[in-house]
Design brief:
Layout: E1 2-9, E2 18-25, E3 30-34, H1 41-49, E4 56-61, E5 64-65, E6 73-76, H2 88-102, H3 120-130, H4 146-158, E7 164-168, H5 176-193, E8 196-200, H6 204-210, E9 213-217, E10 225-229, H7 235-239, H8 241-258
Parallel strand pairs: 3-8, 3-9, 6-7, 7-8
Antiparallel strand pairs: 1-2, 1-4, 4-5, 9-10
Helix pairs in contact: 2-3, 2-4, 6-8
Length: 259
């Protein structure tokens, strides 16, 4: 689904973050990206999402070279990006309203999108319930906890039914119980839907819980990476706690060698 070929990227006046970097993600896979601070984890995600452009090389998704954000891709960031004057339900509707305004132009909405989808309202309400914020649907972002705001941002993304989901450290600022709840939800969603997902994280346990494959990136300026096949993703972590902790230990040791 994703083909990264000979990717080179550098910020102006700085050495390359990536140089001749090649990587492939198949449809339905769940990846975690982890590595030392400054190694380029978020930069790679922004290149995949079309928010940044490579200096050289290509990023191709479903046969389409990426030069701008792709309408079938969903992106969840640390900063929730909610409209402060809109309620939870109105924020969850935002992407659908934008699609309806522009129409299926293959820029703001896929060319085959139903902008007058009669099931859209039901889908919004379903995600609000699934994410535990239905009771808060008429409240404004200023009335919500950080975790509730992040749930709203996730609902806004998932109602658009993306075929590819990018997450950039979406749970790092949350308290432990909220973070664990949302991690478990993401694991369940992948099991249920097979949605292709890539999450950037600095948390070793989160990387193992949410990544069937883990891209462990080398330290700043090195530009390399190792791929780890992880058998402890999702529900397997609960069924096999010893294996989960063993996988976390191996990843921790590997990251120490990559710094």
């Amino acid at each position: 689904m994703i083909d990264v070929s000979s990717l080179t990227f550098a910020y102006s006046g700085h050495p390359p973050v990536f140089e001749n970097f090649t990587w492939r993600v198949e449809r339905g896979e769940a990846w975690s990206i982890i590595g030392p601070s400054g190694c380029g984890k978020s930069t790679l995600l922004y290149l995949l999402a079309g928010l940044s452009r490579p200096t050289a090389g290509t990023v191709v998704i479903d046969g389409e070279p990426i030069s701008r954000p792709r309408p079938r891709s969903g992106l969840v960031l640390q900063d929730h990006g909610l409209l402060p004057w809109a309620t939870v339900r109105e924020n969850a509707w935002l992407g659908l309203r934008i699609r309806k305004f522009y129409g299926p132009d293959n820029r703001h909405a896929p060319a085959d999108a139903r902008v007058d989808d009669p099931d859209a309202g039901r889908r919004v309400d379903t995600w609000l319930r699934r994410l535990g914020i239905w009771e808060l649907r008429d409240q404004f972002p200023s009335q919500l906890s950080r975790g509730q705001r992040q749930r709203t941002a996730i609902a806004r993304t998932l109602v658009l039914e993306p075929d590819l989901l990018f997450l950039d450290e979406p749970f790092s600022a949350l308290d432990a119980p909220t973070r664990e709840d949302l991690q478990q939800l993401m694991a369940e969603l992948h099991t249920e839907t097979g949605l292709t997902r890539i999450i950037v994280t600095h948390d070793i346990e989160e990387a193992v819980l949410l990544g069937g494959k883990i891209l462990a990136m080398e330290g700043r300026g090195k530009g390399g990476a190792r791929i780890i096949e992880n058998r402890c993703m999702g529900p397997e972590a609960v069924r096999n706690p010893d294996g989960f902790q063993r996988q976390c230990g191996e990843l921790r040791s590997l990251l120490g060698s990559l710094m």
